[in-house]
Amino acid sequence: MRCPFCGCEDTQVKDSRSAEDGSSIRRRRQCSACGGRFTTFERVQLRELVVVKSSGRREPFERDKLLRSVTVALRKREVDPDRVEQMVSGIVRELESAGDSEVDSKRIGEMVMERLANLDDVAYVRYASVYKNFREAKDFEQFLDRLDDQDRHKP
Asked: Please, which pLDDT band fits residue 151 given cuts at 50, 70 and 90?
């Protein structure tokens, strides 16, 4: 592992422990050249995923990009970071276990929306506004009206 401070490739693992929900390993490392300390995470990857965008363009799936989009939706919301990590890990596991190496961006968006609806209402609406490309205030109104209708029809 290359040192992020000086670029030296000679780093030593000082401590390892399970992280998140047991799906990754957290390693504390130290650079033998500059003495800098840093943390790395190691995760199991079942398969290489490719995201198919609505334009038809294909790009490699990036877990960090998914995490960033969820984090932006949750900005200034009091949600336990461990719950966010578990949510993202669950989505990634489900995608990798599905058996397809290509996944539509729309499917990922729907999975995020479904989980955010159960995690935080405000983040759900924020994510929906970007995902569904809201352009005017009436788009929010219509979306919120549909949410109210769904809540009224829940048992």
From this structure: low
